Amino acid sequence: MSDTSVNLEQAILVHVNFPQQHNSEDLTELKLLVSSAGVQALQTVTLNRSAPDSKHFVGSGKAAEIADLVEQTQANLVVFNHALTPAQTRNLERLCQARVIDRTTLILDIFAQRARTYEGKLQVELAQLEHLASRLVRGWDGLDRQKGGIGMRGPGEAQLETDRRLLRVRVKALQAKLEKLTVQREQSRRARQKAATPVISLVGYTNAGKSSLFNRMTDSEVYAADQLFATLDPTLRQLNLPMVGGVVLADTVGFIRHLPHNLVAAFKSTLQETREADLQLHIVDAADPRKTDNMQQVAAVLEEIGADQIVQLTVYNKIDLLDQAPRIEYNEYNLPIAVYVSANTGQGIDLLIKAITQLLSQTHLYLKLSLPPEQSAWRARCYEQHCVQEEYFDDEGNCHLRLSIADPVWQRWLKQSQGQLQNYVVSSTDI
């Protein structure tokens, strides 16, 4: 039996401080990313520079030092906490005689490990190929270059062009498959909208505890672990709330600083759940000293994907690590804006449900309907929404219902019935 530990990648980490960058990548986060990727960090090299070096990013002297360190430790990988150009990567690999990757490649590799569903795997492969497209030249340095003129084209250029063509074909095939899945996802979304089912989307920085909170609220068993991007594929679950009825809770991929743009593009259909949600729960690790910066990063990504105008409730998780009591914070209009909970212990979950219910039913209606026998489908819809408080039938078979229903749900029903449902309203009161 072979020893799997021999195959464990061992890396030298490199982090450069640029004083002019206020939002530079965090070294602690790099170590978490490397650990999440299953790589053992042997040593960390840090340095200060005013600007990146065009050839080696870190300068020739520091690059030589990194190469010596690779030889001493027998590391087989060098990880930069920054974006490298193909030329910089090529020069560093020649010098260090080891594989060199940047932050984007590392994140893409973690996503590839985490993808479980068919759609998730397609999305990650698409992002990886789009990232690879600009770096294909690396694999053909030893072959001839195109020199121009008939008879002067070398085999290396022919091979490079072949690879580019094959890559473009594969990208188009992946895009076509994802487009079909997008249509299917859109059909499911329309079905939920037709049923007037509110959608609550969990967003937040990676490792803030979204999946743990999701499991706690829905009694699910979605994989959750203390690592970055523990879950990747989106998960939807039904949840019944008092005075609101059935809602859909959507657990989405966590965000991170400098999330690669090709990843955002590849996960466009997945992030659609976040853009079209009725309410966002912004999950924050209350025990993380960088929580303010993390919240700003999440806000930036939400703006980038066009999901920054949705009503949001901030959920400060992991209060058990701070010995804080669960509570709700309200704004000047007496609406909840933040809830302090612990997904680990269950503290404050009842307060979170209360806050969600209040936000989804800011304007609640107290209705009396008189439905004729041929409108039994609407009676069934009322029971599906869990909004029936009282019911009786008269001698003519008419169904009389007393409802407590959220105004957004009622407005959707009116639109779906083209106003016909309003004809059966006996009385209506805001509560």
UniProtKB/TrEMBL annotation:
Name what cofactor the protein needs.
Mg(2+)
- Annotated residues that bind Mg(2+) are located at S211, T231
Q: Where in the cell is it found?
A: Cytoplasm
Binding, GTP: 204-211, 229-233, 251-254, 317-320
Q: Read off the PANTHER family from this record.
A: GTP-BINDING PROTEIN 6-RELATED, GTP-BINDING PROTEIN HFLX
How it assembles, according to the record, is: Monomer. Associates with the 50S ribosomal subunit.
Function noted in UniProt: GTPase that associates with the 50S ribosomal subunit and may have a role during protein synthesis or ribosome biogenesis.
**Family to which this protein belongs:** Belongs to the TRAFAC class OBG-HflX-like GTPase superfamily. HflX GTPase family.
Q: What is this protein called?
A: GTPase HflX
